[in-house]
Amino acid sequence: MALYLILASLSMLFVGAMLGYIVIRRQSVHAPPAGTLSLPWGLYVSTAIILISSVTMHAAVRAVRAERTARFRRAMVLTLALGLAFLAVQAPALVELLQTHHRERAGHLHLYGLVFVLVLLHAGHVIGGVLPLAVVTLRAMRGRYDHEQFAPVRYTAIYWHFLDIVWVTMFLV
Q1: Given its phi and psi angles, is residue 68 left (phi above 0), alpha (psi -120 to 50 degrees) or beta?
Q2: For residue 122, what is the DSSP state?
Q3: How crowded is residue 83: how many other Cβ atoms within 10 Å of its Cβ?
Q4: Most buried among 68, 79, 155, 157, using CB within 10 Å?
Q5: CB–CB of 75/56 below 8 Å?
Q6: Are 47 and 171 in contact (CB under 8 A)?
Q7: pTM of this prediction?
Q8: Rounded CA gap, 132 and 127, in Å?
Q9: In 3-state terms, what secondary structure has residue 109?
Q10: Residues 117-131: pLDDT tens digits?
Q11: Could you give phi then psi for residue 20, rounded to 5 degrees?
Q12: How deeply is 65 buried, as exposed, middle or buried, from its count of CB atoms within 10 A (0-12, 13-18, 19+)?
């Protein structure tokens, strides 16, 4: 129940942030025309990474339920590696967004700064997901989970899929 309450509150945070972005984007006289906002290539790469990580996380849950221990452990390690890769790719993309913001704000375009804040907000929550993912992966390596005892794996997967959905939604908006 606590996980679902956390996800509900995070959903409100991200929906509010997205609505704020949409309002600013539509009402600002300095906003560029739709489709002209140039995003760093790293955001496209990180989108692919987080989508793949959701697939590997799903595979981990399926594997632990089926008592396929080796497959489960590989999927957990791969998901953790992809989560870290997501953050590693996002870091230079954030720097690039900030640099673009500094260049464009002279022309009263602050949209890149807002996009920077939104991406940083999501990255912070990914860090919050990588930490339990690392703990669950470590415990998986120690044989702590099986087809009857895997609730932490499932909860981590639910949060990870939530982050995936939020990122794809933010990226599309």
Answers
A1: beta
A2: H
A3: 25
A4: 79
A5: yes
A6: yes
A7: 0.87
A8: 9
A9: coil
A10: 888 888 989 999 999
A11: -60, -45
A12: middle
